Amino acid sequence: MLSFTKQQVETTRPDGYWIEAFPFCVDGSSGPDLIAYGLGTADSDSKIQLYLNPYNGKQVTDTSYERKQIAKLSFPVACRHVSSHYRYGPSMNDIWPDGGRVSWFENEGDVGKENWTRRYIGQSPGMHRLKTGHFTTRDHIQVIAVPIVIKSGDLTSPAPVIIYTAPDNPKDLPADRGWNSAVAFKTFRLVHEVIVVPGLNNGLDQVLLAGREGVNLIRFDVASATWKSDNIGKGLPQSEGNPYWGSGTVGVAKVHDDSCGYIASGEAFHGNCVSVYVKPKTAPKDRIAGIRWTRYLLDDYGPLNDQHTGSIHHVICADIDGDGIDEFLVAFMGSEPPSWDKTGVWCYKPIDLESGKFAKFKLSDDSAGRIAVADFRQVGRKDFATISYSVPGYFESPDPSVNMYLNTPITAEKLNDEVVFRIPDPSTISIVDEVEFLDVASRKLSLVVLPKYGRFPVKKGDGVKVIAGRLLWEDQDGNIQQRTKATRPQQQVSTLVNSKDGFVSTEFEGAAFMLLKKSSTSGTPPYSDMAQVEAHNIFPAHFPSAVRSMKFPWVKVEDRPWANGGFKGLEFYNLVGFHVRLSSDSDDQVCHIQLWTAGKGVSAGFHNHADKSFAEIHTCIVNGTGKGGMNWATVPDADFDPANPDKTKYKGLVVPDMCEHGPLWRIDSDGLPLIRKNDTVDYPWHVDEAWIAGDGRGEQSFDVWIAFEFPSFVANVDVNPENVSLSPGIYHIIDSATSRPIAVEEGKTADNTPVVLNSPGKFDYATWQVSRIAGTSFYTFRNISSGSSATSSWPPVDKQKVVGSRSPAAMNLTSAWTVRLISTDTFSVGLIATDLGLSVNADQSRAILASIGGNGSRQWRFEAVPEKTY
C-alpha cells in the first residue's frame, strides 16, 4: 500500500464531527478546499469553517491552511458543499422539536468572504443527513434530507425521507419561505448515511440509505411517477437487548468500468463491524437494483460499550492507489479504553472480490469522525482528510484536530547529513510520483517513480538516469531508445531524451529514475570556481521540515574523515548524499547517490573496491574539459601498480556532458558480476570517484558528475536472439508432455508455498506474469493470484523444489530464468547461473529443478492469457 504523509490542518479544536471536500471553483482550475466543524454545545455555537487549500498557488512555500468562517450555527450535523442543517439538538435523546432546519449558503465568488448569506430551505426535527442531486427532475437542484429520529429517544418510529426542490430563482424567496418539498418514504428508521449514486436512473440520481433496515436503494420511477426501494442487505442482525441493528454507514465502489462494483458498510449505528456486499461476476455493470448481493463480514472490532455502540462512524470508497479498483476507507472515532485498532483510518483493498477477500492497511492513527477524499493538490492522486470525532457528552477524543494525509509514494527523511528516500516498487503501483530535491550545476534533479505501462513527459534537453526498471522512447529518427540501470560494459550512452512525442514510457517492470531538468538557478557551465556550483535544496513544501532545511555543501575530499590524510591540495569535492530504498517491509536498497566535482587534471588514484561490495555507475552533468572520464586497468590486478600506473596497462573512456557509462566490474558471459572470496564485486584497478578530469593546463574548468552505487546487478550484454524470443506478457505455463499447467498451491501468498502442476485444462492459480529483467535476457515468473515468484529453494541443486516466494535472492539468482526457444511453440526453461532446468517430479505433481540434458529435462508451452480474463 502507498505511503501517506500527515499534515496538520488545525490542532487544539474544541470539538469535531464533520469534514467535506468543497470545490469553491467548479471549473477544475484549482483543488478543492475543506469545510469542517464540530457540533458545538448548548452554550457555544459551532463555527462552520472553510479551510483554503494552500496547494492552489503556483509556488507552494507555506502549507498552512487559512480559515474563513462560513457561518455560526447551533448544533449543525451534516453538510453537502454549502447546504447544511442545524438546530438538531445536543443528542438523539434531546432533539429540539423546532429544529432540524435545512439551509443553503450563498457566496457569489469571493473566497475570502466570511459569514455567507444563509437562505432557508426547510425544516424537520431530528434532521441528520442530506445530499444534493437530481432525484425526480433534472430541471432543478434538489436536496434529499433524512432525520435520524423524529423525537427525542424514539428509535422505533420511521422518519421521513424528504425531497426539497429548488425554485427557479431561489434567491428571490422570502426569508421564511422554503423550497417545495415532498416525502418519498416514511418507512426507514435510524438512517445514519445517505449516498448519492449519480445518473444511473435514466439520468436521475439514485440514493443508498444506511439505517436500521440495512442498506437500501431508493429511486424515482419516472414511468409510474412513484418512488421504489430495493433492499441490498439487512446488515447486522438484531440481537437481544441491543437497539441498534442493520447498517450505520455505506459507500459504493467503482471497479474498473463498473460504477457499482461492490458496496461497503459499517454496521450497525456507530458499530464495530465492517462488511461488504458483492454481486455475481455475471451481474450487469452500473446496476444496483434487481441483483442478488452477498454480504461478507470482513471484521468485527470487538464488543460494544454499555450503550451498545462502537467506533465506526463513516466509510468512503475511492481509488487511492490508481489501479482502477476502489478501496474503501473506514473512519474510527476511538474508544474507551483507548484502542489502536479502533482509532484512525483503516483501508480495505479487494483481493478476490467475488469471494469477499480483502486486505487491510492502517493509514492513520488519529481519531476520525469522517473522511474527505479528493485530489487536493491536482497531481493525479487521491489524498484524504479527517476530523477527529469529539462530541461533548458522547465521545470526546483527546486533542481534536483536522488532518490532511497526502498521497506520497515517494517519502524522504533526514539521516545525519544524508536523505533517505523510500519509493514503492514501480512494478507494483499504478500512479506516478515526482519529487524535486536538488538544483545543482545547471540541472534540477528529481526522483520519479513510473508504474508499468506508464508515460511521463520529458522536455527536449532534459536527461534521465534509470535506477530501477526500464524506460523507452521513440527518438526523432524513429528509433526505439531504451535505458536501464546501465548501458553495455565499458561503453557510454547519452542520458538526454529526444522523444518524438515528448514522453518516455515503461512496460511490465515500470521504472524509477532521476530526471535531470534544465535549470538556470545554479548557473551555466563552464565552472571555474566552486562558488559557481552551489547546490540548492528544492524539496517540496509538504516534506518534513528537517529535510527541507538541510544544506548540501560541497566538501573538499581531503577534509572527509575517510580520506585518511590523502588528496591534499586537490581540487576534488564531494556532496552527500541520498539513499533510495524500497518502502516495502523488505526495505531493500535501490541505490546510494552522491555527487562529485574535480578540477582539471585531478586524479585520486586507482582503486578496486576490495573493501565494499557495490556496482557503481556515473552520470556526467558537466565535463569541464571534454576529456574527463573513467579509466581502468586492462591487466590482472597483480600486474598493475596503482601507485605508479603504467599508461600502457590501463584504458580510458571519455564520458561527455549528460552521458553515463556502463559497468567496469568483471562479468561472466551472461552478465553476472564476478564475486571475490570476500563477497565483494570483482573490479579491476580503476579511477572513478575522482576520474581523471582531463588536461590540467589553462583556466580551471570543473567536471561535475553523479555516482550511483547499486547492489550487484546483471550487466547488459549481447545475447542470442533465441534467448529473448518470448515476449513479456500474461501466460499459462504448461508442461508439453502432460499438458499440466504450473500453479502456486491454492494461490497462497506465503513464502515457500509449493509450485504444483494442475490437471490438464485446470487453470486455478495458474496464471503468470512473465517479465524480462530490464537490460538482460533473463525472465521472472510472478503468479497473478499470490503475487509470489517462481523461485528455487536454496541451494539450487538437482531435484530441488520450486516454490512461490515474495523474497527474491540478490540479483534474482533463485528466481531468474532463461527461456530458450526449442521449436515453434515450446521452450526450455533454466535457472540462471546453473545447469538446472524447470522440470517435474516423478508423480508429476510438483515443479522441481533437474539437470539440463538429463532424463528430467522438460519442454514448456507459454499460452497467452487474453486481457481481463485473469
Automatic annotation (TrEMBL):
Q: Name one Pfam family in it.
A: AUDH_Cupin
Gene3D superfamilies cross-referenced by the UniProt entry: 2.60.120.990, 2.80.10.50
Where does the Aldos-2-ulose dehydratase beta-propeller domain lie?
Answer: 99-279
UniProt xrefs under InterPro entries: AUDH_Cupin, Beta-prop_AUDH, Ricin_B-like_lectins
The Aldos-2-ulose dehydratase/isomerase (AUDH) Cupin domain, residue ranges? 409-711
Q: What is this protein called?
A: Aldos-2-ulose dehydratase/isomerase (AUDH) Cupin domain-containing protein
Task: Name the source organism.
Answer: Paramarasmius palmivorus
